[in-house]
Design a protein that fits this description.
By secondary structure, this protein is an alpha+beta fold. 17% of the residues lie in helices and 39% in strands. It has an 8-stranded antiparallel beta barrel.
Length: 178
């Protein structure tokens, strides 16, 4: 397979947003943070919860599925995607193609995107802050998370396939009109 294989490319390259993410990883397995793209001044909220595996998962001790909600605060809209998390304190996030071993509703969430434009996301920790450095960062940028013993991951993130306007149109079509 060549590097330029079009089956792996997002549908519209212009939709790719690349920036920096600052993510607090909480001891509970959930996460909270921000994605920032400059010079466009795009800022999205990132909120994730770990999805429990109902069977033994054989992908390694550091493997988790995260239900990640991306929030556009200006538009007051959000979209959700299921991503895999690898690594313990220094995390990496990426898309998954299947969720075998998880509950049926999680498998359906991962696989339902076939008809819709799929959200593609990647993140890799470049800077890890813990203890006092993490707490100082959290107090400055995420004060509501202060005192929760989180570690902070900072790194490059890319997101494609986000379309908050299409999501609003889909929800209007899904609502009953009787």
């Amino acid at each position: 397979m060549e590097v330029g294989d079009e089956s792996k490319e997002p549908m519209r390259v212009g939709d790719v947003k690349e920036g920096v993410a600052s993510i607090a990883l909480l001891p509970s397995g959930s996460l909270s943070g921000h994605f920032i793209q400059l010079p466009q001044s795009i800022c999205y909220g990132l909120h994730g919860t770990e999805l429990a595996c109902e069977m033994e998962c054989s992908r390694g001790e550091d493997y988790r599925l995260i239900k990640l909600t991306i929030t556009d605060y200006k538009a007051k809209k959000e979209q959700t995607v299921v991503v895999e998390r690898r690594g313990h304190d220094a995390a990496r996030f990426g898309n998954i193609d299947h969720a075998h071993g998880w509950e049926k509703d999680i498998v359906d969430m991962v696989e339902q995107k076939e008809g819709k434009k799929k959200i593609l996301l990647s993140f890799e920790c470049e800077t890890l802050k813990s203890d006092k450095a993490a707490e100082d960062h959290i107090k400055q940028f995420m004060p509501k998370l202060s005192g929760l013993d989180a570690v902070v991951n900072i790194g490059r993130m890319s997101i494609s396939g986000l379309d908050f306007e299409a999501e609003a149109a889909d929800s209007k079509q899904d609502s009953p009109t009787s």
